[in-house]
Structure formats: C-alpha cells, structure tokens
Amino acid sequence: MKTKILVIEDDPHILLGLQEVLKSDGFEVAVCSRGDQALEVIAKSQPSLIVLDVMLPGLNGYDVCKQVRARKVAIPILMLTAKSQEIDKVVGLDLGADDYVTKPFGVRELLARIHALLRRTGAMAPSAAEGEQTAPFEIGAVTIEPKTFQLRRGKTVEELTAKELKLLQLFHAHPREVLSRDRLLNEVWGYNYYGTTRTLDQVIVQLRKKLGDNGDEPRHLLTVHGVGYKLAP
Question: Which of 166, 176, 169, 163 has the alpha carbon at shortest distance from 229?
C-alpha cells in the first residue's frame, strides 16, 4: 500500500507539479486548494503527511495548522511558504508544523524533508522490495544474487557495485513502471547527493552491458526520454 500525502496548495501550477513529483516518487497524492476545506479533506483522505501552503483562500495555512493540532491530529505537517523571514518560520513551528520549505524550493530538498518526516513518525509504507533484499531474483535470463553482489548470465558472472545492485533491486520491485531520474538518484545515491544525472546515466550504461544489452536497442533497461528509465522484464 502506498503512503498517502495530502497537498494543500491553491496555485494550480505548483499543485500539479507537486502531484507529478510525489507520484513519480511512489506516493499516493490527495489534493485540496482551499484552507476552509482542509479539515474536511484531511478527515476524508486520512493522509500520512500534509504539505501545507501558508497563503490559502478561505483560511490561511497557519490557521489550518492550528486547527489540526487543536483536534489532537498527529499527522506530520510540512509547510510551504514564500516568506523567508525567520519570524514566519517560527510562527509555523510554534503552531505545530513539523518542518518548512521556503519557495522556490528544489525537488530533492522537498522529497528529502518529506522522507525524513515519514521516517521520524514511522508513517512510511514499506516498499515492495523490503524483505527481499538478499533473495536472488531474475531479469529475463539473468540471475542477480544480492548476497554475493553477482550477476549470472549463462556461464558469465559479472561483479556488481553497491549502486548497480540497488538500482537492479529497485527496477525489479517496479517492473514496467517509469522511474524518474530524480527518484532513482534519491533512492540509490541518497537525498544529500547534489551531482548531475550524468552519473546515473553512466551506471545504466554499465548495467546494460552486464545484462547483455550491448546494442542500440536494449531489451531490459529502457530509456523513457525526458523522464527516466523502466524495466522491461
């Protein structure tokens, strides 16, 4: 079951962007565009985390946060604010917000803060790959053995790096699903990684060779232009 995040934001462009980013990172997303409708949507959607904009029609984000906490609702709240003054951040935290991000924000920073809050509260749903980290699995005619960091293709044995193995496990847990470059970097390299996607692309090239995809038309790890990669089992 996917972890659900409720985004309360009135700017349609930001709301759409947040939906796409969160869905590509594996979350289920509920939305609300008015502060005076927030409590009703929270009760209905039962999210694991709330991303809450400060400037909202009907009721501002501070008041929404205050009302949520007054009802003893312990859902973690990440506030979005266009203001950078220290006092505005302090007000939000004093009212019960767990963290804040100032607009404009980077996608990786936002996802890092969301994951940190979910880990802190134990609200993150387990991924499909958890519990199977050490079990051998197959991709086509290739067998991957996590315990030995080896890939077996017929009589050929290839040694895998930790990053290569983690990528293969992630692809195997999400067959046919398009995984964005940002998601792959975040989950494999970590949220503190601020390098370029070129590093990921180079590792994919090496993985294709080890999987036997040496031609111009790979069979297993497929490029989805402008987005990322997917596994064709």
Answer: 176
**Hunting for tokens 């315990």 — which residue is that?**
147
Cα 126 to chain centroid distance, Å, stands at 13
- Contact of 28 with 45, CB cutoff 8 Å: no
Residues 116 and 150 in one domain: no
pTM: 0.56
Provide the CATH number for the domain around residue 24: 3.40.50.2300
User: Over the stretch 169-228, which tens digit does the pLDDT of each residue have?
Assistant: 999 988 999 999 888 888 888 755 666 788 899 999 999 999 998 777 888 999 999 899
16: Cα within 13 Å, side-chain hemisphere: 3
Structural Rg of the chain based on CA atoms: 21
Q: Residue with structure tokens 């390299």?
A: 189
Give a yes or no: residue 176 inside a domain.
yes
Residue listed under structure tokens 């964005």: 180
Q: For residue range 63-99, what is the model confidence (pLDDT) as tens digits?
A: 999 999 998 888 999 999 876 666 666 777 888 898 8
- Containing structural domain, residue 181: 137-231
Q: How far, in Å, CA of 170 to CA of 8, rounded?
A: 30
Residue 130, pLDDT > 50, answer no
Q: What total of structural domains would you count in the chain?
A: 2
Residue 130 lies inside a defined structural domain of this protein: no
Burial 206-221 (b: 16+ CB within 10 A, else e): ebbebbbbeeeebebb
**Tokens found for residue 121:** 């509260």
DSSP 8-state class, residue 185: I
